[in-house]
Fold this sequence. Notes:
Rossmann fold; single chain; 9 helices; eight-stranded mixed β-sheet; 32% helix; alpha/beta
Amino acid sequence: MTLGLESITGRYLNTSVNGQSQRIFFEEAGAGEPVLLFHTAGADSRQWRHILNDPELTQRYRFIAPDMPWHGKSLPPEGWQTQEYLLTTQTYINTVLAICDALALEQPLFVGCSMGGRIALQLARLHADRFKGFIAIEASDFQPAWYDIDWFHRPDAPGGEMGAALVSANIAPQAPETERWNTQWMFMQSGPGVFRGDLSFYTRDDSLVGTLQDIDTSVAPVHIMVGEYDLTCTPEDARRTCDGIIGATLDVMPEIGHFPMSEHPERFRPHFVEALARMP
């Protein structure tokens, strides 16, 4: 780690999603083509810190990494204490589009991992004209949960530590020890019920099943990336999804799990550079 100030800056954006006021935190770095970076379920924009600190990439791209509402530094909306947080596809889409409108982003490139990768495919299906292209990381049309998500919001179990224990199995054994634990730390800090609410979207929303053929990659290209050690979104899941999208491309990343930009940034970087080069 180099001593001194990093080039990342953080700001707050006040906007409205579904008629509800939201104060959304985002980090950004660089100048040039805008690239939105969306985090996984139960985490926040810190997963992208290595990309935002990359001096070569930030010479060409303006990276913008938001914390979704309820995540990281984005507080829940007013009255959250009386609500059950359950993320839905439409709310997710509306949040992304609200950020694009508020920041006046024209044809940004959309990059998302895990649930962010899932929403990338939904955006490609429904709003491809708003974006330059889509890089969907650890993304597939659907996979049911292999665990009981209610375990992540119980009065007799620490939800954050339960979440970290779950995701630890999804980190490749080759990941550096420091980044392995940094990745898990973000889940340990997740707000009560937030990981559960994200997983509700990720494991129960099957609206992409049977609709992949609606994605027109001539409007905006779709590139899918998956780690070979991902047991949640397996390479087989990603390949099945890619095969269902005419013109989509696939990269299976060796020695990487479900959190490539966070768990093993050095190994992820060349794959990400290649993915960016595929965009028009």
